[in-house]
Design a protein that fits this description.
The chain has one domain: dip2346 fold like (Roll), CATH 3.10.630. 40% of the residues lie in helices and 14% in strands. It contains twelve helices and eleven strands. β5, α6 and β6 form a beta-alpha-beta unit.
Amino acid sequence: MKIFKLKKEKIPELGFNTQIYLREQLKKIKSMIRKGHSKLYIEFGGKIIQDKHSSRVLPGYDEDIKLKILKKICKAGEVIFVVSSRDILRERVRGDFKTTYYEETIRNIYEFKKRGLIIKYVVISLLDKNNPIPLKIKFLEKELKKIGVISYRFFAINNYSKNVNLNDFKINPFIKINKKIIAIISPGGGSGKFGICLNQLYYEMLNEVSPDYLKFETFPVYNLPINHPLNLAYMAASADFYDVVMKDKRQKDATSYNRDIENYELLHILAKNFPTQGEFLKKISSATNMGANMIAKAIINDEIVQREAAAEIARRLIRYKFEVAYGKEDLKVLNQVREVLKML
């Protein structure tokens, strides 16, 4: 009689401990919530659920951990979900699921509900005020209304990344929410979340409220070198936004990236316009200090993380080669990943 031996299932090598991360990230956020503010806006960077990128580059990472933290921090708060009109109109695709951001918006709302988070407000951001509202945006608004979600239109502000003109905020509405903590989330990066935060902070201060701001950040990791494969994998993943990881000039030995550094300066300028109501915002001293990021604390095997992060860069390179070949992505994005690969 022939005896068949069962193959032992290979146990995946872990480079990251989610439980350590959960503990440290919650502790860090709680330590950054200052007493006395009337409102706190927390911007959550990246994907809140099914974060496949993080689970690939950090083996052991729970891809829904951000949602678990959000629910603990904002259990008595509210959530604003932001999706970019530009991503919808160009039919941006989420690579992991091959779904457009139009589809992702609706899908995310249902997925959040399954996990115990109800989305009441959706902002469609970065609309062009000089052109009529596109039909695709109107269709999305109708779909949202059918499922009981209130949608808001937010228009792009000219030269937003260079300066803050208080009159510019008047083109967009104030989303009045009577909760102390408000989380700003999105289906992915580059959705315009910070612009919504800035808009809300402006109106809060205009209404004699003293708000605060905090960013929940995953990548880049501020206390790892710029050329650490984990930070390089972030640059490859965000190549379509042309994000660049760099030193934070206001924070010694800290790693940040171009958009956060620009955003910090805008936040600082806005706060200066409100000497009294801007008191909490003015206490934020750098782009790094805007955010809570305890990723490095939970890395238990850096060699595994570096290996998987390098593999992720290679995957992104292959993906963008195909997308450029089929006319779905710009050659500049592919070249951006090629430059990242050279830094490994």
